[in-house]
Amino acid sequence: MDRGQTKLFSLLEQVLNVASGFIIAVLLWIYIVTPYLGIEYDVTQSLSVTLMFTVVSMLRGYLWRRAGNYITERYHK
User: pLDDT tens digit string along 24-61?
Assistant: First the structure.
């Protein structure tokens, strides 16, 4: 019987998902948002804030994935 994703695979999926989102967000910020709006920014501060939101997003996605697996496993018993 398929038991869903392992915890490690759930974590890996979230890391890859959020890491790709982080890269896209940084590129959009640097090349589209700031030039369009004329915003001046410090790269270190921008990356720090983006990294904080990225970690929270990764944790949130991992917890939702694990909750979904838990519910699925209970339903199939």
Answer: 888 888 899 889 999 888 888 878 887 888 888 888 88
Question: Is the pTM above the cut of 0.70?
Answer: no
Lookup: tokens for 39 = 């915003």
14 Cβ contact list (under 8 Å, min separation 6): 58, 61, 62, 65
Contact 27, 52 (CB under 8 A): no
Which tokens belong to 29? 């910020």
- Is 65 within 8 Å of 5 (Cβ atoms)? yes
How far apart are the C-alpha atoms of 41 and 66, rounded to whole Å? 37
